[in-house]
């Protein structure tokens, strides 16, 4: 599967979940690039097999309450 299609699917799922829970916010999904993974490996002294993510989702809300509600929704979506 194309990486961009996968990222678009993740962002659509997150947006749909937030909308279904009436949580107003903006979401952006992205691929974690190789250099970012390399920096994390060097900074925290991790091995490549200890890296467990290659995608990231950023959600911006207006309040702390909405932020925690969004976090809970996304956690339940992908647990």
Report on this structure.
The chain is α+β, with helices and mostly antiparallel strands and 79 residues long. Helix content is 56%, strand content 18%. The chain contains 3 helices and 2 strands. It has a two-stranded antiparallel ribbon. The longest helix is centred in the N-terminal third of the chain and has 18 residues, at 3-20. It is globular, with a radius of gyration of 14 Å. The protein starts with a helix and ends with a helix.
What are its keywords?
two-stranded antiparallel ribbon; 79 residues; alpha+beta; 56% helix; 3 helices
Class derived from helix and strand content? alpha+beta
Number of helices: 3
Rg, rounded, reads: 14 Å
Mean pLDDT: 87
Number of strands: 2
Q: Sheet with the most strands?
A: 2 strands, antiparallel
Approximately how much helix is present in the residues? 55-70%
Lateral strand order in the biggest sheet? 1-2
Q: Tell me the series of helices and strands, N- to C-terminal.
A: HEHEH
User: What general outline do the C-alpha atoms trace?
Assistant: globular
Low-confidence stretches: none
- Percent in strands: 15-25%
First-to-last CA distance: 22 Å
């Amino acid at each position: 599967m194309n990486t961009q299609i996968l990222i678009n699917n993740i962002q659509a799922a997150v947006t749909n979940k937030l909308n279904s829970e009436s949580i107003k916010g903006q979401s952006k999904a992205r691929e974690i690039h190789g250099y970012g993974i390399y920096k994390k490996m060097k900074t925290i002294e991790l091995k490549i097999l200890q890296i467990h993510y290659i995608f990231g989702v950023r959600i911006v809300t207006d309040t702390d309450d909405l932020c925690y509600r969004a976090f809970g929704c996304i956690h339940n979506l992908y647990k």
